């Protein structure tokens, strides 16, 4: 319960002393979701200038929660706090005032015009709490939406804090992703490496998140929720998988992508001719422009898994007609020793999808965009990467290229 004291406060809570039990319960539950609330009895120190500290706290919090009951409506101090918040909201746009009904009372016309949360019935407490949490958690991204439009940062998850990520214990950060950096730079974007667990604050400062699913590293529940919130509210995600969909690598990238229109299958794809060194065929279009243009019709994709798509998916990249998808038949010490074919024919190797307000692109093999693959003669991996970035992270520079 003390963790919220050291965090930036998301909400100021105005209440009457008679409603202290409800407010303390609410603060405790918000803290479990990582949301810190400002309370006078917790924040005001002995000898402090109370009015000044309260006014400063209200101005710094993006939300003002007012617990409405007969006691609070008759409280002069609650009325003063409300007047401060209302004046600030009219002048600056924040704090956003959210009424919380905790007792039967008649609302003023000003509050009647607001959407409120009804905590008067104990059986609906958690339903209303979840609504409040969604509002408070989404705010940081909404508040920085205009700032995002001016940022050209691509956050690249190098190794997810892992010293060694694959079966040969080769650190991911030593792999040569220079094509991603170089192409991003020409498009007005800049790469910012990230070798630690993903934090929401980092997501807020980026236009695009690139995840290379590392071996033996899993995204925890908080990270998955933050990344999904980031995409759902307008961020872009570029996820790169590997053969078998990281089944025996211990990663859970597939869990992160659930419901986003693209699913990673626990398979690997072989082309009967040259193990996917033959040209791959483009299928599908995306609005408002054709994502995978004709110059991207030959892409080298080494050792991919295959993807399953839903109706949400738009542009897709498929392998040749002689491909086959396999699943591990015998696994020894986490390594597949034999396989069985589950499907013959073209396999989906890359796809793009829209998830609420955000965008998602998934490639079935992270090796598609390493320097060695991009430099492979006769293939258009660089153009393919550029087209994905054009769609995921549009800037003025990118818009000019789309019009060519």
Short summary:
This protein has 404 residues and is an alpha/beta fold. It has 15 helices and 18 strands. The chain has an eight-stranded mixed beta sheet.
Ends: how far apart?
A: 56 Å
The helix fraction, in percent, is 25-40%
Structural class: alpha/beta
The CATH C-level name of the largest domain is: Alpha Beta
CATH superfamily of the largest domain, by name, is Class I glutamine amidotransferase (GATase) domain
Tell me what portion of residues adopts beta-strand conformation. Answer: 15-25%
Instruction: Return the CATH topology of the largest domain.
Output: Rossmann fold
Explain what the structure shows.
- By secondary structure, the chain is of the alpha/beta class.
- It has 2 domains: 3-143, Rossmann fold; 146-402, Rossmann fold (3-Layer(aba) Sandwich), CATH 3.40.50.880.
- The protein has helices spanning 20-32, 40-43, 50-60, 70-73, 76-92, 109-112, 125-143, 145-149, 178-186, 200-204, 221-232, 253-256, 371-374, 381-392, 396-402; strands spanning 11-14, 37-38, 63-68, 96-101, 117-118, 153-157, 190-194, 208-212, 236-240, 262-264, 268-271, 281-283, 307-309, 313-318, 323-332, 335-344, 348-355, 358-363.
- The strands form 4 sheets. An 8-stranded mixed sheet has the order 7-6-8-9-18-17-14-12.
- Helix 3 (50-60) packs across helix 5 and helix 9 (178-186) crosses helix 14.
- 39% of the residues are buried.
- Mean pLDDT is 75; it is low at 1-6, 42-48, 143-150, 163-174, 272-279, 285-289 and 397-404.
């Amino acid at each position: 319960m003390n963790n919220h004291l050291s965090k930036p406060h998301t909400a100021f809570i105005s209440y009457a002393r008679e409603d202290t039990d409800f407010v303390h319960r609410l603060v405790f539950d918000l803290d479990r979701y990582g949301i810190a609330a400002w309370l006078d009895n917790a924040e005001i120190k002995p000898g402090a200038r109370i009015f000044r500290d309260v006014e400063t706290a209200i101005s710094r919090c993006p939300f003002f929660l007012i617990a409405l009951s007969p006691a609070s409506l008759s409280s002069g101090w609650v009325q003063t706090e409300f007047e401060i918040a209302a004046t600030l909201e009219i002048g600056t746009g924040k704090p956003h005032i959210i009424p919380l009904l905790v007792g039967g009372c008649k609302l003023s016309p000003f509050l009647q015009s607001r959407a409120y949360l009804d905590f008067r019935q104990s059986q609906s407490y958690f339903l209303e709490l979840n609504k409040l949490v969604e509002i408070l958690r989404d705010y940081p991204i909404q508040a920085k939406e205009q700032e995002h439009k001016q940022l050209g940062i691509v956050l690249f998850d190098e190794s997810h804090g892992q010293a060694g990520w694959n079966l040969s214990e080769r650190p991911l950060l030593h792999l040569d992703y220079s094509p991603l950096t170089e192409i991003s730079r020409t498009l007005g974007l800049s790469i910012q490496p990230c070798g630690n667990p993903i934090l929401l604050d980092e997501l807020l400062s980026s236009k695009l998140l690139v995840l290379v699913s590392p071996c033996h590293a899993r995204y925890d529940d908080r990270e998955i929720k933050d990344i999904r919130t980031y995409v759902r509210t307008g961020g872009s995600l570029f996820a790169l998988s590997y053969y078998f969909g990281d089944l025996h690598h211990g990663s859970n990238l597939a869990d992160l992508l659930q419901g986003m229109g693209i699913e990673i299958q626990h398979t690997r794809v072989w082309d009967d001719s040259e193990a996917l060194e033959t040209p791959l065929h483009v299928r599908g279009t995306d609005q408002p422009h054709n994502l995978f243009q004709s110059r991207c019709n030959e892409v080298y994709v080494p050792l991919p898994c295959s993807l399953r798509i839903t109706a949400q998916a738009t542009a897709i990249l498929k392998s040749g007609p002689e491909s086959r998808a396999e699943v591990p038949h015998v696994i020894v010490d986490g390594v597949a020793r034999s396989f069985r074919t589950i499907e013959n024919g073209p396999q989906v190797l890359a796809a793009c999808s829209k998830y609420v307000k955000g965008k998602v692109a998934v490639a079935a093999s992270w090796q598609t965009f390493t320097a060695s693959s991009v430099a492979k003669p006769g293939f258009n991996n660089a153009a393919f990467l550029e087209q994905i970035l054009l769609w995921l992270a549009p800037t003025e520079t990118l818009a000019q290229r789309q019009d060519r």
